[in-house]
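Notes continue from the previous slide.

Worked example: a multi-chain complex. Inputs as given:
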Amino acid sequence: MSKLVLRNLGMTYGSVKAVEGVNLTLIPGEFVSLLGPSGCGKTTTLRMIAGFMKPTAGTIELDGTVISSPEATVPPERRRMSMIFQSYAIWPNMTVGENVAFGLKLRKLAAGEISRRLGQILDVVKLEALKDRYPSELSGGQQQRVALARAMVIEPEVLLLDEPLSNLDANLREEMRSEIRRLHDEFHITTVYVTHDQSEAMAVSDRIAVMNKGRIEQVDAPYTLYARPRTRFVAGFIGRTNFIEGRREGGELRFDGFGIDARRLDGLPANMATAVLSVRPQTLRLRKSPLGETADAVQVSGSIVERSFLGEHWDYVFQPASGALRIKVATQPGEVFETGANVWLSIDPAQMVVIS
Amino acid sequence: MVTKDLESSVPASALKPMRARRFDVLILLWLALAAILAFLVINPLARLLLASLESPDTGAYTLANYVAAYGRPRHLQALWNSMLLGAGVTALCLAFAVPIAWAVSRTNMPAKNLVRLLVMGAFVTPPYLGAVGWILLAGPNSGWINRVWQMLTGASEGVFNIYSFPGLALIIALYSFPYLFIFTTAALDVVSSEMEDAANILGAGTLKTTFKVTLPLVLPAILGGAIVTFLEAIALFGSPALIAIPARFNVVTTQLLQFFSVPVRAEVAAAYALPLLLITVALYWLQQRLVRRKGFVTMTGKGGERRLIELGLGRWLLLGYALIVLSLSVVLPYLVLAQAAFSKAWGRGFSLDNLTLGNFTFLMFEHFTARQSIINSFAYAAAAACLAITLALGIAYIVQRRLVPFAGVLSFLAMAPFVVPGIVLAIAFYAAYAPPPFALYGTATILILAFTTRFLPIGFANASAAMRSINPELEEAVRIQGGGRLASIRYVVAPMMKRSLIGAWLLVFIPATRELSTAMFLYGPDTRPMSVMLLDLSEEGNFERLAALGFMLLAATLLIVVGASLLLGRDFMMRRNAT
């Protein structure tokens, strides 16, 4: 059974379509990220799920009940959801304990029950010592934990997170993102997570919905998204890549400077004269001499036209001997080639993805 | 294990059921606020316009009221006098405020706190009370300054007669310049020292830098402040009533008073007031344009590092100038008012056998309306402040959160009374609510509503600023946790805004306790406020009792201001957004 369903969801401001035709289904306990550049509609989508905005098209269903439609919406306070905001939105006039217990008080739990649950959740997020502090006395990471505890303690049907890590520095961000995943693994709350940071999304999510210009481009598990991007946008947004355009000539797909047997390329539409392929710099190899034709690699002769050393890897730009293509290649720090050197590039056709 | 415990899940039954809503209840709040604003703002102004175009007897449309209002040369002369007065007051205010503001904001002048304190003293002094002080100081023969002059020089005439056009301009300027001071210091405070350093490094000296760089940068703010000063001066009623009427010349506001003396010709007053309203609206529009022009980068935010200009002997000269201005404005008038309040006869001067508390006991226990008028003033001001802040909060909430379409209409209406001179507002309220079916003339209700309207913009500007400082996510966090809008206001918005709302309440309450021009045409025998009482006492010529009443008003105000400053921070009244 599905927990949360977005059906053909749309949001239009005047003539601007902020969100359009979004379809997404979450199974209970699933952790899905909405990933995309700023202005792609991910936050708008999240705020519609929360009930802060009424959609102009489509519906949102929770456990089979429609909670949002252009005609009527359930207000946020009745959705039994919970949310972590970009600013954390910790109430500055309440202590840590009062902040976290607030939702429980609204649910009119007995005082003893409230303090028991409060103690439990503060223990989980390691804040028991700070219970009586005010938010202004907390560090960014501690505030984030308060926000997490406050959102989890009421055991929401759905947990929403709006760029929760964007205000933290790099180290803390990594720590908090494993914290978020740890809490999810512990409580299995269905979660929608909005971010523009692809590594963050990949680290925490079961599935990622990549959004662009108000639409979902692709929804998949992180590895699939990386290895098998379906659109040019997804391929470019998740990691770095080369886009190369080929033309079908007989049984071969001909690129500027080399060709590959069309049968070795998965998903190449038979009736298409040209195609764009994405190939990741990390999947390419450079060698001083050819390997000889093997089952899993195509060899191309050419030269290094640019290089830069980035510490953990080299970035080379390779150009085929008989063409003008520029292909980015990333190699281990030990694989050193001079600019202008003649080298062989080996490409594994299985790593090339046809972009629709 | 935690997971196991949590399986006995939190009961959602305490939350309201998941029922979808078609309408946001805020629409109802919007409608209610719009209705209230229509009552307080739109209807009176519309009635003012209609009254000016109607024959009072037949109700037919006519221009006769305008002919009556502007057909006489002396009525036109009054209008011209007001313009001259406004110009004179503005020139004096510029001369007072700009050097002092520059000295306080940009130089190492000593005793800045004292200067700020005295400027604040001038700011909270009701202008008509200052005028009374100046009558004691510079009345033609008996005023202290003239008596000292005659004593020193043996002259038979005094040196300065306050009952004159320059006298009126001076006493208005002495209590209006704090506005310009606040505008100018606010602008100077954000001019970066780097701007001045850049001029210095190119070879400009301190003076040249000040006149070629610093002052031009804040010129829009100064001009904006000058326009506000001009408008304050022409809208003022109390000081002209005290000075111009005995001096036998008229300005617009005293002329309006004459239309209201028996037989009351409210329709002529309405016709006479409308051009004043139009001038005000036009000039405020100009002022907004001047201040909003963003060509001056330094005006838009923090100015970077600031350093004070080191003046040598000049700093003592500046301090001397500031203290002279502030003595004229605060020290001397307060001194003579205090002397009069505790004297049997103020002309007998400072001597022990002249001391008495009789003026106070007379006012509190013997005079048949004085005590009531004190109670009235504070009660009406408190009621108006509560109403204005409640309204302002509701409007600010809707406007800032943009929750309802057309929220901007509300903010426009809430700010509109800012451009309506108090005396014009009084005529508008008279036109709208004196006749049946409301028949509110002379009631406490009409005074409280008129005060509420008059000071609503102050409340709204402050409430909006406070609301802006609260991240909307703090409220959304309440709602997603299961609390409604009321819960978010009760548990988060209200506690967080408490301090600024107390400040805003005082900023309405304090001017409302001394409001004169709005009350002038609306009070009745039992609802006379203190300000009107003061004016009546001055007509009786009883300056000792008048001073005693003024003394009580000032003492109460000072107590409140000092208390609030301790509670809310020293500068709560002088912040830029408060004006």
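Summary box: The radius of gyration of chain B is 26 Å. Residues 1-8, 294-303 of chain B have pLDDT under 50 and may be disordered.
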